[in-house]
Amino acid sequence: MATSELASEQQAFDLNIDKVLEHWTVSFALREVIANALDEQALTGTADPEILEDAAGSWHVRDFGRGVRYQHLSQNESREKKRSPAVIGQFGVGLKDALAVFDRRQVGVTIRSRHGDIQIGRRPKTNFADMVVLHALVDPPSDPQMVGTDVVLSGVTAEQVADAKALFLQFSGDTVLETTDIGQVLAKPAPRGAGRIYVKGLLVAEEPNFLFSYNITALNAPLRRALNRERSNVGRTAYTDRVKKILTSCTGRAVAGPLAADLAEYERGRSHDEIVSWTEVAVHACRVLQTHEKVMFVTAFDLAEGSPQLDYARDDGYRLIVVPGTVAAKLGRLTDLAGDPMIDLSQYREQWNDSFSFTFVEREQLTTPERSVFDHAGAIVALIGRRLGSGKVRRILVSETMRLSEAGDMTLGLWRPDERDIIVRRDQLGNLSTFSAVVLHELGHAYSGETDGSLAFEEELSRLLGVVAQAALSPR
Fold it and tell me: What does the alpha-carbon distance between residue 242 and residue 28 come to, in Å, rounded to a whole number?
């Protein structure tokens, strides 16, 4: 029999609730009523629900949807809600649980719609007169033209209503930082407060050491299983995958920036759990940040070493981002979201050297002391029995700038085999001893054809130094 066909007498509908959630507060029961109103608004596209107190002190939770029917109290699962991604609740037991809690907490309830008025009361169970159980008492509608559903509650305080509303994202005032297909990243209500975990707008857990709050809108199987009747105190393992997926789907600076700043606190032990627990989140944040900013990623060890390369990078406009070693080890093999290589010390050095051009200084541009040192170039080469300008080495040049070494500083000198040139950095002309050492080092490369650290280079350099020493000791 449809509710609209109810006779004038009252109908008693057995709610079949065997066990009341005894630890539930009035605010938890209110949560279910508010959730139903929000779901109806989402399903029907009607006006936002109203939550207000009337002159008599009763509280109303009013939506403007299709109106509740007593049949809704028999559903265990709403297929309509299950199909809709926007709704909060998916299990019909929520309203029945709320009614049981209101009865236990001595809260008066009247549910009004154009389909009928529903209250709660205790009646004998059908065919079992000695078992008095909770029933929904259904009367004909007091307002057959009413739009939506009005749940009227007496014996409820403003504080209980406020506590119930605080369980919903819609009433929290939380700022959405970024929205993804999995859910949203939210700014925490207070920087030092707990992060909140919402599922489809309903608070299910709090995380004391989270950097952000989250609203999960696309559920997976573990999270569905964890959302029991109580829909509170859901364990982290149930939503970890969803939160990580949200973070690694973000592409904006509003999320990546704070995560990168949090990375810098890692070595001090002050990072939040998203960084400490999930390396893939930290790596993704670095990729996003570089997509939007000119940054270079370094470790605390890099900073402690104090490579001059750090200053060169700062001078080039890079902002240094300190990351843990575990994160730094992964960045070298990755690109940012635009496809560009991630910039760490090694990559910066490669880019510097690839784009490098010498700033040569002609002899006439040198100062008088510098010229007096530079003019010994031919004599230094002559000490090893060679003549500058013929044979292996064609000329020695001076440059203001040089390529970066693996240590991150500018090299002192360079041998260019194709041009047969030795290039010396200008600041090495400060005295003859320094200049001679650089020239002899590069002559070692020229005549061995090998790089630093190789046996052939070391042997050739040792031979050249021996020749110079012998020449210096020989009588003139």
Answer: 25
Whole-number Å distance between alpha carbons of 441 and 456: 13
* Predicted pLDDT at 353: 84
The β-bridge relationship of strands 421-425 and 395-399 is parallel
Domain limits, the chain: 3-167, 172-249, 251-355, 363-473
β partners of residue 397:
423
User: Running DSSP on this structure, what letter comes out for residue 169?
Assistant: G
| pLDDT digit string, tens, across residues 367-406 | 999 999 999 999 998 888 888 887 789 999 999 988 888 7
d(CA 14, CA 133): 8
Options 3.40.50.700, 1.25.40.10, 3.30.2010.10, 3.40.190.10; CATH for 363-473 is 3.30.2010.10
Measured in degrees and rounded to the nearest 5, phi and psi for residue 332 equal -60, -20
Signed CA dihedral, 337, 339, 341, 343: sign only? negative
From CA 411, how far away is CA 424, in angstroms rounded?
9
**Sole residue written with tokens 């900013």:** 293
d(CA 365, CA 34): 82
CB-based contact 320:295 (threshold 8 Å) = yes
Q: Are the folds of 3-167 and 363-473 the same?
A: no
Beta-carbon neighbour count of residue 373 at 10 Å?
20
Give the other-Cβ count within 10 Å of 390's Cβ: 8
Domain 3-167 has CATH 3.30.565: yes
Closest CA to 149 of 112, 120, 122: 112
Percent of the chain's residues with pLDDT above 90: 60
What is the reported pLDDT for 476?
56
β-strand 128-139 against 50-53: which pairing, if any?
unpaired
Does CATH place domain 251-355 in 3.40.50? yes
Q: Taking Cα atoms as reference points, which of 123, 2, 11 lies closest to residue 69?
A: 2
Q: Torsion-angle region of residue 341: left (phi > 0), alpha (psi -120 to 50) or beta?
A: beta
Q: What is the DSSP string of 201-217?
A: TEEEEEETT-SSEEEE-
Under 8 Å between Cβ of 176 and 184: yes
Please tell me the distance from the alpha carbon of residue 202 to that of residue 197, in angstroms, as a whole number: 8
Instruction: Of 276, 278, 216, give the one whose Cα is nearest residue 246.
Output: 216
Q: How many angstroms separate the CA atoms of 57 and 138, rounded? A: 24
- Average pLDDT of each block of 10 consecutive residues along the chain (476 residues)? 53 74 88 92 94 96 93 64 56 75 93 94 82 87 95 96 94 94 92 89 93 95 79 86 96 92 84 92 93 93 90 92 91 93 92 86 94 93 85 91 81 91 94 93 91 88 85 66
Which one-letter DSSP state was computed for residue 168? B
